[in-house]
């Protein structure tokens, strides 16, 4: 095993060294060695990729589809994405120039932030929110402005957004995610229109992460591009909608002048997406419209199962309207120490959850449970938490 040369000790990018690791993964790794652990930690869909999508990938391999595509992705796939967005949201994008196929939604976020924001630019980020947003923004030298949504039932209100802008008049962008990871909250049409009014008045760039848009339960998913297409970069993908997390297939769409800059950064980061994943994605988009419907129905069933069990134990939570996460207030005897509670149920009940404070201000005293896990795992986890709580209350 090579030992680092003494002259290179301490070498590394200082900003990266000061950036904390991805805490969701770090906590998951911390508890994963516990024998018999039922994991409700990661946003991993509890389904296999639909067979017709796998067959499209196999045909791609058999046809020796194994060469560089253009940096932005194969044009038929980009056109299919553009057609889907037009059919779904009524907004017309050109596949050539206004759509980019990316290595998952995370790379789409990274390429967008690195190409459109400068050091010192301020970015509004509602919290609790996805734990990777702040590190990506910070590493680029931009400044996150966290807006705590806890007192508004975990949704960003126009009033709170206006106050955040007034306190940070030089803010350049807002990073939205809905349905929200970790709370499962989302925005109806009227709520989105109200936010868009404030955003338009202050000329903010919108980076809209809508990766969970196909998993909205109580109403259709409304997109920010329906309100502000001229100042929005839409980010989405197939990881959640088609259970394709390991394929790393995401995409973004937006005004051509911005997408041209993002495409340049995207090409520096990864060159291009592999051909087989693109073949699978084309099949998913063109012929897999029904796949997310079946998944969504099952997730809604699992959501109801978990919510009923947790509420019976005295946990408080807002009913998730989308995604596949439950954000539950921990028992009073643990105070706001969500890490202590998460470690306790991992060690004593053998159930893995993620501490809420990982997701930023407003997450303290909560835990996130994923109901993307198989139903049998959810039922077993609820039994174990029930036994754990009974022991705590004796």
For this entry, give a set of tags:
single chain, 394 residues, alpha/beta, Aspartate Aminotransferase, domain 1, Aspartate Aminotransferase, domain 2, seven-stranded mixed sheet, four-stranded antiparallel sheet, 13 strands, globular, pyridoxal phosphate
What topology does this entry show?
Blueprint: H1 14-18, H2 23-31, E1 38-39, H3 51-62, H4 75-89, H5 95-98, E2 99-102, H6 104-116, E3 122-127, H7 133-139, E4 143-148, H8 158-167, E5 171-177, H9 189-201, E6 205-209, E7 232-237, E8 250-253, H10 256-270, H11 275-287, H12 291-312, E9 316-317, E10 325-329, H13 338-349, E11 351-352, E12 354-355, E13 366-370, H14 375-393
Parallel strand pairs: 1-11, 3-4, 3-5, 5-6, 6-7
Antiparallel strand pairs: 2-8, 7-8, 9-10, 10-13, 12-13
Helix pairs in contact: 3-11, 4-11, 6-10, 12-14
Characterize the main sheet: 7 strands, mixed
What would you call the structural class? alpha/beta
Form type: globular
Q: Spell the H/E element sequence.
A: HHEHHHEHEHEHEHEEEHHHEEHEEEH
Report the radius of gyration as a whole number of Å. 21 Å
Number of helices: 14
Q: Strand percentage, roughly?
A: 5-15%
Strand order of the largest sheet: 2-8-7-6-5-3-4
Q: Can you give the mean pLDDT? A: 95
CATH structural class of the largest domain: Alpha Beta
Q: Which regions have little confidence, pLDDT < 50, spanning 5+ residues?
A: none
Going by CATH, the homologous superfamily of the largest domain would be Type I PLP-dependent aspartate aminotransferase-like (Major domain)
Query: How many DSSP-defined strands?
Result: 13
Count of domain modules: 2
């Amino acid at each position: 095993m090579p030992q680092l040369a003494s002259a290179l000790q301490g070498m590394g990018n200082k900003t990266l060294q000061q950036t904390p690791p991805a805490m969701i993964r770090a906590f998951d790794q911390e508890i994963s060695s516990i024998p018999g652990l039922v994991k409700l930690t990661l946003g991993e869909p509890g389904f296999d990729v639909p067979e017709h999508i796998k067959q499209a990938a196999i045909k791609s391999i058999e046809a020796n589809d194994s060469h560089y595509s253009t940096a932005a992705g194969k044009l038929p796939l980009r056109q299919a994405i553009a057609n889907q967005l037009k059919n779904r949201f009524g907004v017309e994008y050109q596949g050539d120039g206004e759509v980019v196929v990316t290595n998952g939604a995370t790379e789409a976020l990274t390429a967008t932030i690195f190409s459109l924001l400068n050091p010192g630019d301020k970015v509004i980020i509602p919290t609790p929110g996805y734990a990777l947003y702040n590190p990506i923004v910070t590493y680029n030298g931009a400044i996150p402005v966290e807006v705590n949504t806890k007192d508004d039932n975990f949704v960003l209100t126009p009033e709170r957004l206006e106050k955040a802008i007034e306190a940070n008049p030089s803010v350049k962008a807002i990073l939205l995610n809905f349905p929200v990871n970790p709370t499962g909250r989302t925005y109806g049409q009227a709520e989105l229109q109200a936010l868009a009014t404030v955003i338009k008045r202050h000329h903010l760039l919108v980076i809209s992460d809508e990766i969970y848009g196909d998993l909205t339960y109580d109403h259709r998913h409304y997109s920010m591009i329906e309100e502000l297409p001229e100042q929005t970069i839409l980010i989405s993908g197939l990881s959640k909608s088609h259970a394709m997390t390991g394929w790393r297939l995401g995409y973004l769409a937006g005004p051509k002048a911005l997408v041209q800059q993002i495409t340049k950064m995207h090409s520096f980061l990864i060159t291009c997406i592999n051909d087989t994943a693109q073949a699978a994605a084309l099949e998913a988009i063109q012929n897999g419209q029904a796949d997310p419907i079946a998944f969504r129905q099952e997730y809604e069933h699992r959501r109801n199962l978990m919510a009923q069990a947790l509420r019976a134990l005295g946990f408080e939570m807002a009913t998730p309207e989308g995604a596949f996460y439950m954000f539950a207030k921990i028992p009073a005897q643990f105070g706001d120490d969500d890490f202590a509670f998460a470690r306790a149920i991992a060690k004593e009940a053998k159930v893995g959850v993620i501490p809420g404070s990982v997701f930023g201000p407003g997450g303290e005293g909560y835990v996130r449970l994923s109901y993307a896990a198989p139903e049998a795992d959810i039922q077993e986890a609820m039994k174990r938490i029930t036994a754990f709580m009974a022991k705590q209350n004796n």
